[in-house]
Amino acid sequence: MQLSDLVKPIDQMTDDELKESLRALRHRRTTERPAAAKHKAKAEKKEAAPKMTKVKNLLAGLSPEEMAALLKQLGE
Q1: What's the predicted TM-score (pTM) here?
Q2: Low-confidence ranges of the chain (pLDDT < 70)
């Protein structure tokens, strides 16, 4: 059995068959792209950091009585 028996040569494919084979190749990505995943995680971390800092600053400014009242409200 030869490779030509399994795959139709490009010069013998119709336009629709060529489009479909290109579409299949584009959507068949199995390699993981670590740089893209790392960039996405870094962006999420960067976005969450200011929010956490704001919350920590707000909580640090509370008196012990205000903190107890807040915890009581959250517990309800």
Answers
A1: 0.33
A2: 1-6
